[in-house]
Structure formats: C-alpha cells, structure tokens
Amino acid sequence: MADMSKGGQQATVAPAIELRGISKAFGPVQANKDISISVQPGTIHGIIGENGAGKSTLMSILYGFYKADEGQIFIHGKETQIPDSQAAIAAGIGMVFQHFKLVENFSVLENVILGVEDGAMLRPSLAKARKSLKSLAEEYELHVDPDTLIEDLGVGVQQRVEILKALYREADILILDEPTGVLTPAEADHLFRILNGLRDQGKTIILITHKLREIMEITDTVSVMRRGEMTATVKTKDTNPEHLAELMVGRKVLLRVDKVPASPGKKILEVENLRMVDDHGVERLKGISLNVRAGEILGIAGVSGNGQSQLLEVLGGYANATGEIRISGDSIDLTGKYSDGRSRRARGIAHVPEDRQEHGLIMDFPAWQNIVFGYHHAPEYQKNKFLMDNAKILEIAQDKMDRFDVRPPNPQLEAKSFSGGNQQKIVVAREIERNPDLLLVGQPTRGVDIGAIEFIHKQIIALRDQGKAVLLISVELEEILSLSDRIAVMFDGHIMGERLPDQTDERELGLMMAGVTQEGDAA
Amino acid sequence: DPAIIFDLGGKFDKSFNEAGFNGAEKWAKETGGSYLEIELQSEAQREQALRRFAETGANPVITLGFAMSAALSEVAPDFPETTFVTNDGWSDAPNVLNVAFAEHEGSYLAGIMAAMASKSGTVGFVGGMDIPLIRKFGCGYAQGVLATNPDAKIISNMTGTTPTAWNDPVKGGELTKAQISQGADVIYAAAGGTGLGVLQTAADEGVLSIGVDSNQNYLHPGKVLTSMVKRVDVSVYDAMKEGENLKPGVRVMDLAHDGVGLAMDEYNAELVTDEMKAAVEEAQAKIISGEIAVHDYQSDDTCPVMKF
Amino acid sequence: MDFLTIIQIADSGLRLATPLLLACLAGLFSERAGIFDIGLEGKILASAFFSAAVAAATGSVWLGLLAGVASSIAFSAVHGLASITFQGNQLISGVALNFFASGITILIGTAWFGLGGRTPSLSGGQRFSNLELPFANAVADVPILGPIYSDLLSGHTILVYVALLMVPLSWFVLYRTRFGLRLRAVGENPAAVDTAGVSVIRLRYAAMLIAGVLCGLAGVYLATGLAAGFVKEMSAGRGYIALAALIFARWRPWHALYATLLFGLLEAIANRYQNIDLGTFVIPVQFMQALPYILTVIILAGFGGTAVAPKAGGQPYVKER
Amino acid sequence: MQKMPKWADVALIPFLNLLIAFVLSGLVILAIGENPINALRMMISGALGSTYGWGYTLYYATNFIFTGLAVSIAFKAAMFNIGGEGQAMIGGLGVALVCLYIPFPHWTVAILFAMIGGAVFGAAWALIPAYLQARRGSHVVITTIMFNFIAAAALNYVLVNVLRPKGEMNPQTASFPETTQLPTLHDVLAPIGINFSKSAPVNVSLFIALAACLIVYLLMWRSRLGYEIRAFGLSSEASVYAGISPFKIIMVAMILSGGLSGMMSINNTMGEAERLVLNSVEGAGFIGIAVALMGRNHPFGVLLAALLFGFLYQGGSELSLWTKIPRELVIVIQALVILFTGALDNMVRAPVERAFIRSAKRGAH
Ligand SMILES: Nc1ncnc2c1ncn2[C@@H]1O[C@H](COP(=O)(O)OP(=O)(O)OP(=O)(O)O)[C@@H](O)[C@H]1O
Ligand SMILES: Nc1ncnc2c1ncn2[C@@H]1O[C@H](COP(=O)(O)OP(=O)(O)OP(=O)(O)O)[C@@H](O)[C@H]1O
Ligand SMILES: [Mg+2]
Ligand SMILES: [Mg+2]
Questions:
Q1: Is A120 inside any structural domain?
Q2: Coiled coil located at which positions (chain C) (predicted)?
C-alpha cells in the first residue's frame, strides 16, 4: 500500500501540520491543554477521544475558527499565524465541521463559491464553479446537483458539498470532524474511497471519529485525546481497537454487546397498514405493518430517508397518519387531540428521538428541567395542583445524572453545554427510567463516544430484560445487528422483510436496504 | 409669581399653547417678572402640576386646554387662596376663572371669508382628530360658509386617531391634495402641527388656506387667506397682569370681547377684498348684537349643517 | 369612481408609499444580514430633523440630504455597535434609538431654532421640487396612458424615483453580486460565512451602513419632499409600518415595493373617502381611518403561510460562548 | 475557576451602565446650558425624596409593571407582542364599562370586576393576532401593530360618540361612581400610622401589580404551563416532540399578555383618572417593551426596570416643573438608560469580567 513507502520518508519531509503547546480555555473549561502533534504529508491521521475531549476545539483552532490562548502552528515546517479562517484557507487547509457550515436555503453552487467568488458579480463565478465542480465530481466521485438547495439534500450529500467546498478552495490539508456520524454504511464507504483517492494525490487528511473500525481501516497514524490532553500518538498498524479504546476511556471497554437470548412475551405494539403523507404531499409511509413483543428488541434497518424517521414521528405522536396502532391490544388515536406526545406517553410509550438537539432537549434549559421534558405533567413531579415540585425534580435529576454517569454531573448546567454523548445520556436517562411499556429509540449512539455507546446499549438491553418492548431505529448496521432480537428492513416507506440477526449478515441486509428482496420472511 | 401649565401639545404647537406662551412672555417682558411653567407630558401630571405650583405659592395658576377641567375640580378646593384659570375648560370651584372662547363664532367668520374667496364653491376643513372641540370649529365654519353660499360644498377630513394626528404634516398635505382634487380651493386647518402641512400644500398647489389659533398668515404670505385667532395670549396676559387680584368666575372670550377673530395683516391684505371685509364686519356686528346666532356644537353636541 | 380619481388616489398612494419603501428596504438590508431593526422609526425621525435643519440653515436641500443621511448612518452605527460589536440585544437597541431620536430632535431643534423642535418652514432651494418627466405635458391628453404617465408617474420629487430605482437595484445587489450573496448568507448562517473566510462583522456593518443611507433618504423625503420642514414626531409611526411591510414582503425587494404600495394606497383611499354618507347613516370617520389596518390584517390572514425570517436574525454572532 | 462574583453581575455592572447613561445625559444637560448636578439632585429628591415623589414614581411603575410583564410573557413564548398599547386601551374600555354600568357596593368588589373587565377586553384584543399567528402564520408583529391603530380608532369613536356625557368637551367617559374609587396609598397606610402623601395617585393597584409579578413568576417558573411556554419559546420543534400544543401555547401566552396589558387600566383609569380618557395609555405599552427587555423577561427584573422608569418619569416631571429644561430631555435620558443598560451591556461587562478573571488568576499564583 501507498502508506508503506510514505512511512519511510517521514524523517526527511517537514510535517504538513505541526502544533506545539496549544492551549485553549472556554471560561472555566480547559478544552485543550498544551497539545502538540505533528501530521505527515500525504497521510491520513486519525484523532479519537471521548465526547468533550477537545477534538473539535483543536481542529477549529487549526482552521482559525477559534483563537488559541497559547501555542504555535507550523504548516509544512513554516510557523503560520492563523487568526481567522481566511488565513487557514490561504494556508491550504480545508475543514468539514461536525455541524456543517452551510447556508441551508442556498444552492450547492452558491455555498461552494461563498467567500471565494472571482469578482464582484456572481454570474461568472457561478459559471466557473459549475465547470470545476463538474471536473471535481468526476475526479473524486463527488456527484452533487449544483442547483439543488442544501435544505433539500440528505446529510450525506451535504457532506459531499462540504468536501467540495474545501477542494474548490484547493485545500491540500483536509480536516474532517466526525464525518461518518450521520452517514449510512454505504455512504461511509464511499467517503473512504474518496479519502483514499485524496491521499493518493498527496493530500493530507485529519479524520476525527468515534468509530475504531474506521480508524483501523483507513488511517496511517492515530492520536488519542483525553480531557483536553493529547495522551498518545501511535502508528495504526501497531495497535488494535481494544487498546485504543482503553487509551481513550482510561479503562477496559467491551466492544461487543453482551446479552442473553430474548424471551418475548405478549404483543405490546401492533402496527397495521400505517400510511403517512408529509407536508409536501409526499407519501412517506406506504402501509407499514409490524409488531413488537414484550422483552424483545425490534431493530429497523434502512438507509436514512426511507421512512424510519416518519415512523418514529407517527409512533411518538407528532405526525398524523392513517391505519391502526395498538398498544397492548388497545388502539390509539392517530389524529386529533389525543394524537400527541403527551397522550402517547400516557399510554406508556417512551421515545428517544433521532435528533437530541432538535427534538429531545431544550438546549437552553438546564439539565434538571430537561430531565422531565415531556413528562412534566406526571403526578410525581407536582407539588400541588398548580405548581411543579422543582426541588424534587432537581434531586431526581441529580440522582439520574449520577447513575447515568453524565459528565459533568451538574443538573444546573444548560443542556447545550454538555457534549453530544452526555446530552444523549440525559435523554436516555429520562426516557428509560419512566419504565415504559414500549421504548422508541432513534439513532441512540449517533456521535457518541465508545464509552457512552457501551453504557447506552447496556441500558437498552436491561430494559428489554425487564420485559419491555423496544423499537430501535439506526442507520448503523452494526448496532442493529448486535442489539436486535429481530430485524426489519425499511425501504421507500415499506417493510422489505424481517430477519433474525443470527441468520443474516450485513451483505444481505444491505441488499434489502437497497430495495432488493430475496427469499421469504423469517418472522 | 404666576404659573402656566401647557397642555400635551407643548408650548410651541404653533397654535393654542403657543398663543398662551406668547401672552406669558409679553407679560414677562413688560413687567420683568418671571413665571413658572410646565409642558405636560402625561395625564397624571395634570393634578401634580396644579398642586405643586399651588403649594409653592404661585398665583394665579393658569391652565390651557379643556382636558384640565377634571384635575382643576379636584385640586382647586384644596387651595382656596390660589386663583386658577382655565382656558377652554370648566370647573365649578369658587376659586377658578373659567375662560371660554367662542371658537364657533370666529370659525363662522372664517367660513364667510372662505365662501367668498372660493371660486369653485367647494371649501375644505382639516381637523386634527374627531373630538368635540374640533367639531366646534368645523361646525361654526360650515355655518359661515353656508350662510354666505348656500350651495357651497364642504369637505371635512380628520387626520387620525392617535396623538400623532396633531404632528403629521405629511398626512395633512395629502389630505389637502385630496380635497383640492375634489374641488376645494379654500381649506381651513384646525390640526396643530398637521395644519402646517395643510397650509404648506395649499400654498404649493396654489389654493388658499386658513390658519388657526395663532396668526399664521405670515407663514405663506399671500397664500393664507386669514387665520382664526383665539386670543389665548390676551387671556394669559390679562390673568398674569392682574396677578393675585385676579377674580374667579367666568370670562367669555367671544367676538364681542375680542376673544376670537380673524387676523388681518400685511400678509393677507391683497387677498382680502373690500366685500369680504364688509361681509365679515357685518356678520361680526350681527353676532355681537345677537342678530345672528351661531350654533355652538358644544351646547348640545349637534351640528345643524354638518354630519360628523 | 372615475378614472381621474383613481389616478389621483394612486398618485397620493405613491407619495405615501415612498418613505415606507425606503425604510422597508433599509430594514431589508439590515435584517437580511441578520440584524433586527425596529429602530427604523428613530432613524427616519432623526434624518427628517437634520435634513430640514441643515437645509434651513444653509439654504441647500442637498446639504440637508447629506446631513439627514449622515444622521441616519450615525444611528445605524450605534445600532451596529450595540448589536455587532457588543453583541447586545438588537430589539433593546432599536427601542432605545427610537426614544433617543424622539427626544434629541426636539432638544436640538429647540436649542437651534427656538421653535419647540420645529424647524423653520422650508422654501425654494431648501426643498426638493417636483420633477416633470420628459414629454409629460405632451402626452397628457392621450387617453388612459397619458394621465398615468403625466399625472401619476411624473411630477414627483427626485427621491420618489430614487426610491423606485432602489427596488431593482436592491434586488440586483442582493441576488446578482458577491456582496449580496455574502450578505444573505450572513443573515442565514454567519458561521458559514466566517468559516468561508469572510468577516461577519464587516459584512454586518456594511449592511447597517446601507440601511442607514436608505432610511435616511426616507426621513429626508418626509421633511424636505413631502412636507416643508420638520415637525416633532413627524415620522408618525411610519417606521413601524415599514417594519410590518418588510415582514409582509417576506424580506424580498420586489415584494417590499408591492407591500408598501399597498399600504400607501390603502392610506390614500382612506384619506379620500373619509366621510361616506349613506343617507341615514354616516360611516364613522374612525372606521375609515382604521380601514387600512383592518384590510392589512385581512389580507395577511388571507395570504396565509408563515413568513420565514432570515434564520440568524436577532442573534448576535458569537463564536465562543 | 470562578468567572465573576455574583454581586458584580447583578449590582456592579448595572450600576456602571447607569453611570455611563447619566454621565452622557449630564453632558446633554450641559449642552443645553443647565446644571447637570442640580438636575440630577432635583430628579432624585423629586422622585424619591418624599412620599409624594414616591407616590408618583410608584404610580408610573405600576403601569409599567403590568405592560412589562405582558410583553415578557409573550416573549417567553417567542412572540413579540408590540400590541400592548392597543390592548391596554381596550382594557381601559373594559374597566370603564364595568365601573360605569355595574353598581358596586364597595371598591373591593369593583376592583375584582374591573380587573376581569380589563383583562378580558385586553385579552380579546390579543386574541385575533394570536389566532392568526397560530392558524394562519400571520406574523404577530404586523398584526399587533395594526391592532394598535385599530384600537386607537375604536376608542376614539366610542369616547366621542358613545360614552361621552353630553356637553363634555374632552373625549372621555363620565366619572366613575364613588364606590369604584380605589384607596390611595395614603388611605392604606394611614391606619398603620404612616403618613403617606395624600395627593399622589399611587393606589392599591400597586399591590395587584406586585402580586402579578409574583403570580407571573410562579406561573412561568414553577407551573406546568409556564414550563411549556418557556419550552415552546426556546424550541417549537422539541415542544411538539414533548406533546406541547403550539396552538395552545400561542393562544394562552397572548391571552395572558393581552390580559395583563388590559389590567394596567385599573391603575390609570380606575385608580388615577377615575374615568376613561382618550390618551390614557400614553405609550406605556411601548415602554413595556423596554421594561421587559431590560428586566430580561423575568418578573423581578421587570419590577426593577419598572421602578427605574417610574423614577425617570417622576424625576423628569420635577425637572420640567422647576427648570426650563424641556421635557424631551427626560426622553433622551430614558433612551440612554435603555441603550447602556440594555443593549450596550457588554461594553462594560467584558472588561469587568476580564479584570475579575485576571485578578483571580493573580490571586491564585
Ligand atoms: N464554544 C464553546 N464555548 C464553551 N465551551 C465549549 C465551546 N466549544 C466546546 N466547549 C467545551 O470544550 C470542551 C471540548 O469540546 P469539543 O467540542 O472540542 O469536544 P469534542 O472532543 O469535539 O467532543 P465530541 O466528540 O462530542 O464532538 C467541552 O467541554 C465543551 O463543552
Ligand atoms: N382518548 C384518549 N386517547 C389517548 N390519550 C388520552 C385520551 N384521553 C386522555 N388521554 C391522555 O391521558 C392523559 C390524562 O388526560 P387528562 O386530560 O386527564 O390530563 P390532566 O392530568 O388533567 O392534565 P392537566 O394537568 O393538564 O389538566 C393525557 O396525557 C391525555 O393526553
Ligand atoms: Mg466534536
Ligand atoms: Mg385536565
């Protein structure tokens, strides 16, 4: 492989990037502490670390988005000041942020040229960009319709736009912050092909990810961050996932899911012929039928955008539909006054939403107020007929945060000041501890570090083992395969079929997810 | 020292309050005396200002505007040694001098001038807000117009319903243009700062206007037919001059007492024909003698010649 | 209603719409860049005062125009300082500037002219005079189009034509230039602009500057075009109406033109038909005066659909919390 | 790693902000040829130096508490209710109708009904904009602006043509009957031996305003409804996930907001004027916006901001009584206070914060 030969040159060529003694504090939070790292040109350098370890901060400093309190930056051996992103771009650095920096109601083309227009008038810039986008697309397999609005694109394509943006600016150092967090496996594979291609052309790539598999698969070197510090940098070929996990979390982490076989009981959730039309008049659910029994986890696999989100919305009570839904044999309203989140919760349905920041939490509420979000009518949170019992809620919140290892365990902190993984723990703590009959879970570990993933998976399984029904939706096939007792595959608003996890594999599921049916159902 | 309380319009409203201010200044200049003053900013200040001035021994305390009536009735009894003056308002308290202006009589004369100056037979009236006082102006004016030319058409407009109605010359100008396009060629403005826009637009468009309260003839020489002046300045000046000897009671400022009237000066001299002068003088004499009774809208809240 | 009346009403509507249009476009640039601007009212007022004051003092309406625009820019600059540099609350800043304008114009006016905040009446070269468009007289007698051209379109001050011209110009700047692209982006997602290597702060200040100029023109037109001098509080709520028009127009230049023309026209109609005598019953003047506002509400409700404001509007851009 | 002591946050910084505002105001006073020190002294002693001054300060503050709370509740639901002015006007009509047409035995009964009358009328005036926003997406900022104008026209009509007693020049209603007259603070405090000025208009409405602060606090920060309103205001998407109905929240928040604006009229209409006059609201609805924003949309912040504005109003009155300083100066001072305490807060905050962090670091070494 190409990286072998490059390994030999390392001593003679100046590193593409070298950071020395970078420190950065956000008020009382020391996000980066005296960090030094060097990245060889033409390599893919991985950075891993728990949520909140300071990875994104470090990269933002490199990209001139934040200013370091201390430290120096060397690009290709030359000390470089990067006071703003303009300087970073000039230094040949491109960055794809964890949260994309795209203007949603602009077209792809407009987003690509923003900031690097060729003159005062737009037209020539757009025409030029259109041409070079075409050639970039061919060169790197980055196909995007230049005239579509960003808001109409899936996240995978949006990411392609971000990469195109960087390439259009002729970056030769590309930083990707958790690029696969929102991608389907197919999209992730595609991305890695692109990254390999870029490396082969001599570009330098920094890749932040929580997925050790990806680190092992694609990087040449990997650095580990913990609590704001750079704790280790190793050659990828000299390490293994278990070791990396330990370096990251500071203890041994179980990378497999451990669970006893399910013992399903009576049907908790029964769905029949569920149909749903969205605001634009597009039919998103085209007659879904499924059921989940007590004590089992039904995993729903599928490429995002095939109706899984809508299924969760309907079940969770915030989208109207037709058809039939029964909970423990009683049918529930699918439209009207009693088709809302509150009524669903009253029926024993708990719901970890796909997007914790948009739906699961009020980001400006402190953690303790979020811990009752959706359940704020529950009698045990009330002091009397009129007032909520804030003191008690605070106490409950503290307790939950301690037991769910939410860091920092301070219920007064606003949700937005927790890292993604810890935000997710708050949501999970809230939903699971309501002791629901049915738990709806959407993308439970998106963007979450491996320590937290382990923890969240354990909680879901524990709930199953208590005899509750769990409906799990995830685009991570690995997660689906390891957690589910039964797997249904969704494609284009239909259930393509069901499989048992030990009688199928990623390849077969992948085909079904692409709409290809094979032999009969397992259920 | 005397004290004077200007109403919400402020002492530079170019009309009513400003007339009062001029009277006070005239007194101050002549006698070298000084006086206390306040421009009200809120309703709650009405009582406050009366009380505070009375407490410090100001006498008389002169108020401008009908809106002071209630506050006066409230406060005056508490200060029997002080004489209060209300211009336009009314209070039964024994230590209040009620100065009542006969705006309808003055407006009647303005109406006569308007009807005679109009070639089209259509005249206009722009009021600041649809309130009784403005109706009183409008009604007197309409009577004068119709008495002179029974076929005349009177277009009446009000500026608005919020306090800015008195300070919107732009809207005044547009109303004027609208009236002109409907044929009006003499327009009487009783609308505070808005009236300035009326006078201006009338001058720009080459029609005649009639000012109000103070003499506004000079604003556009040769373009303002006349002004219906309300001698608040005289009332204030007299009250200050009499000082502590001022007698409470009722003082009527009508045509007979020169309390209202039309401004005739060098600025409108060439607009005023001899016939006009004669007609106005005749009407004035008849009103004073009682031969002509100009209906006062205030007396029964109706106007015989105009619908509001 | 005969044709001539319609022309006259439309003519009046156009005049009344002009200050609204200028202020609305000012708000458009500001809010498109992500800065709420409820200080339009104050800027109009300040500009009206300073343009009239300087025109009165110097005898030149052009100097007045400069002064009016400069004062409006100064207000914009303070608003920018508060909402861009010091990341303050944009609504508070706007409210404060409105108060400030309504007080300071009268204070200074009294100090300068001793007329209680009024300026002396302007005449001759102190005011903008009406322009006759070419051939206005010649074509006046052509049926339909003649009056439309010579009565409705011709015979306004230059600022009316400037305002109308600003509509396509604004559209062009916003949608056809690099600056416009960046400006719109900064109102939607300043972080995207920042990471693309463009200064958010500079863009937003530029937007404030444009807003200052346009709003200044609105005030200049009020005091030296429509009226002949400054009268206290003469903006009379037009800044708020412009704000309503801006939302109504969904932050788009051509729609701003339509919305402000609609408001101007409704007001002109209400002015013209104040006393409708139905024989037994006179429709109260107050009803006719409220009619433009009632109709606006009805039209708005009828149109339906949510007006989506620029996403980053109202929030200061903070990189580090 | 302390950021900044709490006292600096809640006391020092606001104080510095006010200081800057007053220094600038002083310069303006100097510029118009008066003595700023005297002016300040006159304002302070006039507004706070006597029970009389306090009486007016508190009277104005009462108005602003109501309108400030009104704006803040709507704000919490992400609704910018600019319609406080119109809602208060129409609320005044409700108070007037109740006071004029229901024969009350005693003021205690009257005030209850007047509160309801004011609140119902004010809420009704907020209802249409709220409904149009919730169901039709018509922007509440536009509709409430429009409703202010409509309210002014409606009130003008009613006061001139319907409720005005015959022969009355002022567009106003008849005086309310004796039994609806509210006790002033003088009447309330006299029995307990405190001699409060008799002539100040502050009345028992003040206590209702204070109670309203407390109730709004409990409602917004302690009740389920308040929780839902705040959640909705911060994220409507998440609220829908939680089963909070946007329609309900928009309607309820606007009704509460309009109701509070309407209730203001028990102070100025029932308590002070004892009749409804045309211009009774006098911009208090707009001041409410400033008060709410400066009070950070928190009831106790609103209370403080309302007191500050009450002080400025009354202090300003005294200035215009005893000096030739034009009344507009007070508006300028208000503007500067709003600007520096509300919008330019960070200008002072950032350096102060840095100074504290620096000294803390030095202390740590
Ligand atoms: N703009 C900011 N203001 C204040 N604190 C911040 C800011 N950005 C990050 N932090 C804090 O700094 C620390 C490091 O955050 P950072 O985003 O770099 O972590 P990360 O390693 O990228 O985590 P994740 O894996 O969740 O993306 C965290 O404690 C975070 O809460
Ligand atoms: N027909 C129904 N179908 C589904 N859910 C229902 C139905 N009727 C009631 N619910 C749900 O049952 C729960 C209790 O309803 P109820 O109206 O009694 O609430 P509550 O406890 O009185 O609430 P609040 O405190 O707001 O008054 C609610 O979550 C409601 O949505
Ligand atoms: Mg990160
Ligand atoms: Mg109930």
A1: yes
A2: none
